Each structure stands twice: as structure tokens, then as C-alpha cells.
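Recall from the previous chapter that SMILES is a line notation for molecules. Here it describes adenosine-5'-triphosphate.
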Amino acid sequence: MKIYEKAPAKINLLLDVLRKRDDGFHEVEMIMTMVDLADRLEMEELHSDSIIISSQAGYIPLDEKNLAFQAARLIKDRYNVRKGVYIHLDKNIPVAAGLAGGSSDAAATLRGLNRLWELGISEDELCTLGAELGSDVPFCVTGGTALATGRGEKLERIANPPQCWVILAKPPINVSTADVYGKLRASELKRHPSAKDMLEAISSGSFADVCANLGNVLENVTLQLHPEVLQLKEIMQRLGSDGVLMSGSGPTVFGLVSKEAKVSRIYNGLRGFCKEVYVVRMLT
Ligand SMILES: C[C@](O)(CO)[C@H](O)COP(=O)(O)OP(=O)(O)OC[C@H]1O[C@@H](n2ccc(N)nc2=O)[C@H](O)[C@@H]1O
Ligand SMILES: Nc1ncnc2c1ncn2[C@@H]1O[C@H](COP(=O)(O)OP(=O)(O)OP(=O)(O)O)[C@@H](O)[C@H]1O
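With both inputs in hand, we obtain:
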């Protein structure tokens, strides 16, 4: 039997860091939502007890370093599954972009294998398993829009933001999440974005207030390492995006746009500076 799962990309509408914890992770407050740029996973049961990953993308690991492999191994070990699986990853989400591509593949693998092997695992339990693989994986298991706290694994589902266009631009640089958190001096942050104001903006359905309350404390760290990300933000603003922010630890910058008439002008303007530009909708 073959099954299919979609693994969408996430964006962080708000990312605040409260403090560095003793375990090396940071205590965060994030508001995350999904967009309709997605990897597609095909999973097929194997009679041999092995996990095989393939992908059309030449630039990701296909061995145990792949997060989908790790997710399959985790669920197999934890639930004593003696069967194997062949997973094909059709990658569309740019890698190491701040869009949680690998985390979403891991989450889709957990959801998919739960179905394929009829394990009957609850969504909460899939999230707990996911947290062993990465801080973004639990959110990618549930999708929707959520307030994420702890190191990102504690989730409270909230209403979806008002529908709009999302323009994603990924500059050709690689950013390591560990590196960005490592360079952040959480105790010295002078300004924090307000999760409370963003939650109010979302619950009142005000697109203007959502744009006004976008904020990400990791942005300054990445901008200092890679000034071209700031340049991209400025271009996106100048071309008329209603709200602009870097997603996660970057380097992808997203622009929120309410009027369809503006979208192609912004897209065409960005393409002059950046090869990887995507126009998507929020997944609501
Ligand atoms: C930047 C975000 O993507 C925003 O959604 C997440 O906070 C990071 O999520 P992720 O990539 O799933 O992160 P993980 O794979 O769990 O951790 C990668 C590295 O980032 C740092 N890290 C991550 C999450 C967190 N709350 N504090 C941290 O300091 C740690 O150094 C960790 O070793
Ligand atoms: N299935 C996968 N897809 C993409 N990258 C993967 C995958 N499995 C492992 N990786 C590795 O994980 C690293 C981070 O890739 P990923 O695309 O998940 O980053 P990201 O978008 O910055 O994630 P996040 O927003 O969660 O920090 C890359 O170095 C990549 O080689």
C-alpha cells in the first residue's frame, strides 16, 4: 500500500526569546502559521525491516541525517514495528531557509506512518515524539496557527490570521539555526515584540494590525551576519508589501500583501535581486 502526505512550510509571524535555559535551548514565545508551499511525501511499506529515503533534490542527506529517516526510525523503535518503509520526498520547500522544511517532512512521516501501519497514535503523542526530533516538529504535526512556548513544543491552537498573499524570498545563503541562537544575547534584548498584541490582531481579524505587530528577535542576529537579508527586507518594503519579516532564523524574508493587484509587481521586482521567490497563500 502507498500513502501520501503533504508537508507544508511554516512562517513565524512573531518570534520572541524570553531567556536562555540551562539545557542550552531558549525559552520562546512564537506565533506560527502554515503556507501552501509544501513538500510531498510518498510512503510505501517494505517487507524488509529497513528505511529507504529517496528525493529528486540533490542537496539533502538521504541517510540517517534526514529528518524523515529519523522520524521513521523513532516511530518504528517506539512502537516495535517490524516492517520497513520506502519514503520518497518531493522537495519544494527551500532547505535551511527558516521555513521548517526538514521538520515538516519529519512531522508528515510521523502522521503518514501512523496511518500506514495503523498504529492508532493520538495527535498529542505524535507531538511528544516529534519534540524528540526538533523544536518545530510538534507544530508541524498539528499545523494550523498556534502560539508556541517552551522551546517551541508547547502549543496552543489559535484562530488563523486574515487571509492574504505571502511572498517568500530566499537569498542564496545558508543559515544555521544553532549559530543564530548561539549568537543571540537574550538578556540584552532591548525590545520585545508583543505576542499579546499579535494575538489580539489575529482574533480581531485586522490585517493592518497583524502587519504592524510582526516581530522576530532573531532578525538582528541574522542581519548582522548577512546584510543582504536587510537589503531584501528593504526591497520588499519599497515594492509595497504591507508587512515584512524574516522567518525563523532566516534567511527567508516574507512579505504579507492584501491586494492581489500588487503581487506581480512585488514578485517581478524581487526576481531582479533574488532567484528563489515564491508567491503563496496562508493555509487556512
Ligand atoms: C528558529 C525556529 O525554527 C523558529 O520556529 C525554531 O525556534 C528552531 O526550531 P528547530 O530548527 O526545530 O530547532 P532544533 O532542531 O530543536 O534546534 C536547533 C538548535 O537551535 C537552538 N535552539 C532551538 C530552539 C530553541 N527554542 N532554542 C534554541 O536555542 C539550539 O542550539 C538547538 O541546538
Ligand atoms: N527532509 C529534509 N529536508 C530538508 N533538510 C533536511 C532534511 N533532513 C535533514 N535536513 C538537513 O537539515 C538542515 C536544515 O534544513 P531545514 O530545511 O529543515 O532548515 P530550516 O528551514 O532552517 O528549519 P527551521 O526553520 O526548523 O530551523 C539542512 O542542513 C539539511 O541538510
